[in-house]
Amino acid sequence: MSELESIESEALGAVQAAADLAALDAVRVAELGKKGRISAFMKTLGKMTPEERQVAGPLLNALKTRVADAVAARKTVLEDAALDAQLATEYEDLTLPPPPEPVGALHPVMQVFEEMAAIFGTMGFAVAEGPDIEDDWHNFTALNFPEGHPARETHDTFFMNNPEGGAPKVLRTHTSPVQIRTMMEQKPPIRIIAPGRVYRNDWDATHTPMFHQVEGLVIEKGIHMGHLKGCLIDFVKAFFEVDTVEARFRPHFFPFTEPSAEMDVKYTKKGDSIQIGQGDSWMEILGSGMVHPNVLRNCGIDPDEYQGFAFGMGVDRLAMLKYGMPDLRPYFEADPEWTRHYGFAPWLTPTVSGGLS
User: Fold this and answer.
1) 115 and 259 housed in the same domain
2) Quick one: 253 and 164 in the same domain?
3) 79-97 burial: b if 16+ Cβ within 10 Å, else e
4) Is 325 part of any domain?
5) How many CB atoms lie within 10 A of CB 178?
6) Amino acid 188: pLDDT
7) Residue 204 has what pLDDT?
8) How many helices (H) and strands (E) in the chain?
């Protein structure tokens, strides 16, 4: 067994000589690994006679234990030394001024998108998306827009030249084409919101050529206007974080819904802020209605079996109302001072239960 004593002496010497954790682990593998020297001796026990095994077994197990203990003890020493070295080089000089705070902020429009997704998510809505560049069928025809409708004219819509000579593409004027694509790809029941950018030929304090919109769609059996009204009133309460909302629905016309209605809510103005749920003034905030049977048929859905409602609202305007921004145009001017003033912490995710803003 002098060979074992020699192995132990060499192994313990190598353990003590290991200058860092990597060198120590190399020693451990060389001695105790599957192909290590001590492990190789342990494998020979099976070939020994019972008498030989009674003598060699305890010696080998004791050797293995002593080397393993030495490795563990040396590892503790090396880890403590590494930590002391790290602490010696990494320190905080309290006499220095504090580092500047992060200046990045989430744009109010993106904040409102997140808030709306959180609210409608609790109602069972999924988020659906579609392309910004659409064809005439998805943007107009499938949505029951007749030929000659003003929305099909260049003074309202951005048309794109088609190099192939066919019907020109358009920058979508609403996110309603996402509803069409969803109804053609999915079978009812359907419950989605469609957020995104839309484009119209307009520019003033309250209108921009590109703005943001969220539309909603529900297609199920037995849907009626009562479901639409309840859904939208619950949304307004959650979005503006008020307990009561007095709303009215005025008859209106949209080609893709019948009947159609605009939703007004009561509000009061105090200084530059708008307070929803108070006062005696009415303010229109969105358009809505029951999905027109022609739209359902265009998408391959039987209007005698399924009904649905849809709504659409401008995200930029909702952000103005909720957060007191008087003009739409600074939304797109990339002014860092404006973003710092109206922006939101990007890591705070809105929740209905924990607070939206």
Assistant:
1) yes
2) yes
3) eeeeeeeeeeeeeeeeeee
4) yes
5) 24
6) 92
7) 67
8) 11, 10
pLDDT at position 172 is 92
Is residue 347, in this structure, part of any structural domain at all?
Answer: no
161 and 68, same domain (yes or no): no
Residues 49 and 179 in one domain: no
Assigned token pair, 106 = 């989430």
State the CATH number of the domain containing residue 195: 3.30.930.10
Q: How far apart (Å, rounded) are the C-alpha atoms in residues 249 and 119?
A: 21
Whole-number Å distance between alpha carbons of 248 and 240: 17
Whole-angstrom CA distances from 348 to 7, 15, 238, 239, 345 are: 60, 50, 17, 16, 6
In a shared domain, residues 320 and 266: yes
Could you tell me if 249 and 336 lie in one domain? yes
Give CA–CA dist 344/112, Å, rounded.
10
Q: Which stretches in the chain have pLDDT values below 70?
A: 1-2, 102-103, 152, 154-155, 163, 165, 204-207, 272, 351-357
N-term to C-term CA, the chain:
76
Residues 299/184, Cβ–Cβ less than 8 Å = yes
CB neighbour list of residue 300: distance below 8 Å, 6 or more residues apart: 183, 184
Are the beta carbons of 160 and 169 closer than 8 angstroms? yes
**Which letter does DSSP use for residue 142 in this model?**
G
Q: Is 52 left (phi over 0), alpha (psi -120 to 50) or beta?
A: alpha
Task: Say yes or no: 158 and 189 in one domain.
Answer: yes
Residue 118 lies in a domain: yes
Instruction: Compute CA 8 distance to the chain's CA centroid, rounded to the nearest angstrom.
Output: 59
Which of 242, 265, 279, 271 is closest to 356 using CA atoms?
242
Q: What integer pLDDT is reported at residue 1 of this predicted model?
A: 53
Q: What total number of domains does the chain contain? A: 2
Question: Can you give the residue range of the structural domain that contains 175?
Answer: 108-341
- What is the torsion angle, in degrees rounded to the nearest 10, for the CA atoms of residue 238, residue 306, residue 259 and residue 170? 80
